[in-house]
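Before a computer can learn anything about folding, someone has to put a protein's shape into writing. The three-dimensional part falls to structure tokens, numbers that each stand for a local backbone shape. The protein below has been through that process, and both of its lines are reproduced in full.
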Amino acid sequence: MFYLLLALFGCMTGISAVLFGFGGGFVVVPLLYWMLLGSQGVDSAAGQSAMHIAVATSTCVMIVNALVASRRHQRAGNLIRHYLWPLGGYIGLGAMLGAAVAMWVSGEVIRHAFIAYLGVTIVDCLLRRGFLEQAEGRTARRLGARETCLGGTGIGLVATFLGVGGSVMTVPLLRRCGLSMTQATSMANPLSVPVALAGTATYMALASFSRFDLGPWFIGYVDLLAFSLLTLGSLLGIRLATPWIGRIPDRVHARVYVGLLLVVLLSMCLK
């Protein structure tokens, strides 16, 4: 059942990556966190490192999801180059800082930060104009220099610290620039790649400072078995979701996006 659930939720991450720009963190982090606690026990090495393992494995799954989903959106013509660079470079810089910071705090701190971040994001999407409703006739604007530098670094830092890929920051940001939900969620995938790469590499390297021996199926904090099953499932999910690219009405797309954030928030609060 453990392995079946991993594959099933992996499929969900693939669907969420293509349609909503979620590289996997908002599904993988809560899933692995609770499954590790349930299967290994709170007092085990894996149980005491559950949040770090969940976040590290999430960033690893994101590499595959983000790259494959980006390719699908590129073929569909949804990617706009000037929104990807240099923003992606600053996100990569922030990602290295975020992973390093996460290594020096407890799993509970990361969990509560994850919950707080989700709550703030949901409120912002609901109350700030320009997310739930796309302004008709509005011309999309370019990102300013400050938004690119400070915003990109902040997105990378927070996203890697929490293992969420940055989509909950990049999608609202691009949405407020006047992009459609299809365009904004499409751009979230390539912008998640630097977060995934920097986060995975840093978690693998810095896990040598951990006092726990997690076993042979781990490289650093990355759970290789969970990664394999999640990735296989996600590839299926990406294939299933690809025909729906650009076919979801904008208003529905935005509301389902916020609804998914709310579901994950509730799942992380149940303890």
